[in-house]
Specification:
This protein has 9 helices and 10 strands. The protein is of the alpha/beta class. The chain folds into 3 domains: about 130 residues, Cobalt-precorrin-4 Transmethylase, domain 1, CATH 3.40.1010.10; about 100 residues, Methyltransferase, Cobalt-precorrin-4 Transmethylase, Domain 2, CATH 3.30.950; about 50 residues, no CATH class. The radius of gyration is 24 Å and the shape is elongated. The protein binds S-adenosylmethionine. The site of S-adenosylmethionine has 23 residues, from helix 5, strand 8 and strand 10.
């Protein structure tokens, strides 16, 4: 289907809802000869495959399950990833177009990255096209109506492989912290949130986009419970919405945002450089007020 040379497609299929598949992902997935999907045990199911299976034509398209065990021992994992890469390359060399599907976005903590790196290194003649997908971060933030980052806020995205001390440091340093793979360590995270007084700033999002979706701020309800692997926690330290905070700050400093220019030196709005916002010209104290932890 590539029209010239063999192409290996890495396709993000979004967080779980068919409508969140991109038009490009749909076009590629309908057209390829082979759809490879990751599975954590041989013959196991695949979350990514469940999202797209209804639109495949299995009389023409072939499914290929590839093994990606949930293991942290790289000495065991690498030969398994290499075997998956070998299967993909064999299809491509037989002139069959291949798409490897990945839940969410392929460039964010995905199994695709492992095989992609091996193929790109060892088979540079193979063309690769990566189709981005809606990541679980975006989907969870939208479902919970939490801004991941606004204005000059800094975001940290981390898998749940941190200790309490590291987590504390991250929460102190960043405006928003997204904890991926949080399902198995929620209790430990709750302790840190309580120590920092941030419990009410956290949103738990699990299996977003599916019928089993959970989006809640009631973290207590999930203490001592093992949550699904597809669970994310977003801690957004901003307690007051930015626009309201700016307005309140402006009211206190008697700055009338949106007022007409008062002097000849101050340009009218239409004369300002493009891209300069009210916030850019707000006094330093106002801008800095957004950066500290107490909001
Ligand atoms: C291996 S990473 C894959 C991330 C994926 N590539 C993405 O772009 O979202 C798996 C982690 O992503 C998050 N995740 C993936 N899908 C999710 C969903 N539907 N709802 C909530 N979190 C999800 C969870 O934190 C999960 O442990």
């Amino acid at each position: 289907m590539s029209g010239g040379g063999i192409v290996f497609y890495g396709v993000g299929v979004g967080p779980g809802e068919f409508e969140l598949l991109t038009l490009k992902a749909e076009r590629v997935l309908r057209a390829v000869d082979v759809v490879c999907y990751p599975s954590c045990k041989a013959g196991g199911s695949s979350y990514a495959l469940r999202i797209i299976k209804p639109m495949l034509d299995l009389s023409r398209q072939r499914l290929e399950g590839l093994l990606f065990p949930m293991d942290k021992d790289f000495a065991r994992l690498i030969p398994i990833w290499r075997e998956s890469a070998r299967v993909i390359v064999a299809h491509l060399k037989a002139n069959r177009s291949v798409a490897f599907i990945t839940e969410g976005d392929p460039m964010l903590y995905s199994t695709f990255l492992h095989v992609y790196e091996i193929i790109a290194d060892e088979f540079p003649e193979i063309g690769v096209e990566i189709v981005p997908g809606v990541s679980s971060l975006g989907a969870a933030a939208a479902a919970g109506r939490v801004a991941l980052g606004q204005a000059d806020e800094a975001i940290a995205i981390v898998p749940a492989t941190y200790g309490k001390h590291e987590l504390k440091e991250l929460l102190e340093r960043f405006d928003t912290v997204v904890l991926m793979k949080v399902g198995a360590v929620l209790d430990q995270v709750l302790e840190v949130l309580d120590e920092l007084g941030l419990r009410d700033r956290a949103l738990l999002a699990s299996r977003v986009g599916t019928k089993q979706e959970i989006v809640t701020r009631d973290l207590e309800a999930y203490r001592a419970k093992r949550l699904h692997y597809l669970t994310t926690l977003i801690v957004s330290k901003r307690a007051v919405p930015l626009v309201r905070a700016l307005q309140e700050e402006a009211a206190q400093t008697k700055l009338d945002i949106g007022r007409a220019p008062r002097s000849a030196e101050e340009p009218a709005d239409e004369d300002r450089a493009p891209g300069i916002t009210e916030q850019d010209r707000a006094p330093d104290s106002l801008v800095k007020a957004q950066a500290g932890p107490a909001r």
